[in-house]
Write a structure and sequence with these properties.
With 278 residues, this protein is an alpha/beta fold. The protein is built from 9 helices and 8 strands.
Length: 278
Amino acid sequence: MNINIRDLLDAGVHFGHQLRRFNPKSKRYVFDNRHGISIIDLEKSFNQLEEATKYVEELARDNKKILFVGTKRQAKEIVRETAAQCQMPFCATRWLGGTLTNFATIKNSMAKYKKYMAMEADGTLDKTPKKEAAAIRREMNRMNRNFEGIIEMSDIPSAMFVIDTKHEQIAVAEANRLNVPVIGLVDTNSDPTIIKHPIPGNDDSSKSIRLIAEVIMEAIQEGIATRQAPHANQGRTPLLREEAKEEQLPVTPMAPMASMPNEPVVSEIPDSYSTDQD
């Protein structure tokens, strides 16, 4: 993970919701309350994000699929971009009820949609009567909204990455019902105990959402790269070590250098905060 706590601070990940929207179950991730706004503990956010990245990297290494879900206005385009870059399915337009719990029916509908797309591609649709063709195209538009991002998903995903677990509560409930682990960006108005890997942070700011989503995306890409990397160096390592041992020259010991004091950890939080926009 190539970010630090300062990056989280600069992205505004520490800004929670107003106190009137506070969920008591998120208290353990709250650093303080300032000016009526909950301030999230970025050290805990960083630790949770690091744990989540290790988990998704392991899944990607094992060739498992992770479904990206984010249908709120601030998250739609970010989810589309990051999921496409790491070649994972996504849901950005709307969550179709039963996408996981009734996947067999959803799969049949997606097969029908693929059939319509094939008809349009080979010109068969143009040869059908105009009224029938118009009805099929209307249905295709509706299917595109429903199945965008999951059209190639052949099975239930191994995990789900969610932006705003409260907004996507139906998707989270379906995942929990099927024991699909959920990694989620959780604000102070949500319950972090209902998912396996909560990442406490601001889920209303596009800058905060993009930072977290890109970190998850990069972890998946690293897992895929590790899986696809050739193992040509295996079996040659002992020989290289022996050669290095034979050619090693004596090194004159140097006087120990004075240890530099560690730089202080930035724990200050700005005096002014923005409020949530309804």
